Amino acid sequence: MSDLSGLTALITGAAGGIGTAMAEGFARAGARLALVDLRDTSDLAARLGPEHRAFTLDLEDPEAIASVCAGIGAEMGIDILVNNAGHGVIFAAADPQVEVWDRTMRINLRAPWLLSAAALPYLQRSGRGRVINISSQAGVVALDEHAAYGASKAGLILLTRVQAFEWARHGVTVNAIAPTVVDTPMAVIGWSGEKGDKARAEIPVGRFAKPREIAAAALYLASEDAAMVTGETLMVDGGYTMR
Ligand SMILES: NC(=O)c1ccc[n+]([C@@H]2O[C@H](COP(=O)([O-])OP(=O)(O)OC[C@H]3O[C@@H](n4cnc5c(N)ncnc54)[C@H](O)[C@@H]3O)[C@@H](O)[C@H]2O)c1
């Protein structure tokens, strides 16, 4: 298991299904947590231990991103940034839902770009900085009604590679994780009932992923052992995209 003692991990979307599993996993590995979400995560922080802190932040607001990140960096440092918050509304590609499209891009793509940039000075100071961007299988293959979500997650994979390329010289690795459907509140929106059963059957391992399996992938990428891995997208998809 990764030993992250003495390191600070900033996790966005910490109130959600995957974010909570990440918080639990990173806390078990010894990291000090800065939990960030639109929703209050102070109960989660308190449950995990007195050294952890909760921050409320709307990732659609560039100025708030800069100021909250500067506050966390000054108070706690930032060694690991997990850009996990996401917006998962789906609609048909022929349906011009401009506001949903823009919101999806602001949360899933613009916020990881801005937050990573704001965190860079602290990641650089760390000497072993890590950025982990939570993408999706929908950023790799075409899924029905996933034009905006898929485009945002595909963009995040390319953003990961550009950040990795530019920041390798600063001792910062940047990687993405692309899960299949994960059993969380977000998945219920698009993958319940018959649609969910069909989707499970199309995954070679025959089931959706569990939040802790995504956390385990993030813990590996955050670890010292992963220092040579950068610009990669780790598929955690039960084989869905292998063909
Ligand atoms: N659940 C899945 O099936 C699945 C599959 C692949 C990828 N993902 C990705 O994993 C990540 C986590 O998803 P999840 O399933 O835990 O979803 P979730 O809905 O349970 O959690 C998402 C969290 O992001 C937060 N958030 C949304 N907008 C925000 C904003 N503007 N500012 C701050 N916080 C905001 C929400 O409050 C929520 O706590 C997302 O990026 C998602 O796209 C999820």
From TrEMBL:
InterPro entries: NAD(P)-bd_dom_sf (IPR036291), Sc_DH/Rdtase_CS (IPR020904), SDR_fam (IPR002347). The keyword Mitochondrion does not apply. Keywords: Oxidoreductase. Gene3D superfamilies: NAD(P)-binding Rossmann-like Domain (3.40.50.720). One of its GO terms (molecular function) is oxidoreductase activity. It holds the Pfam family adh_short_C2. PANTHER family: DEHYDROGENASES, SHORT CHAIN, ESTRADIOL 17-BETA-DEHYDROGENASE 8-RELATED. Belongs to the short-chain dehydrogenases/reductases (SDR) family. This is Enoyl-(Acyl carrier protein) reductase.
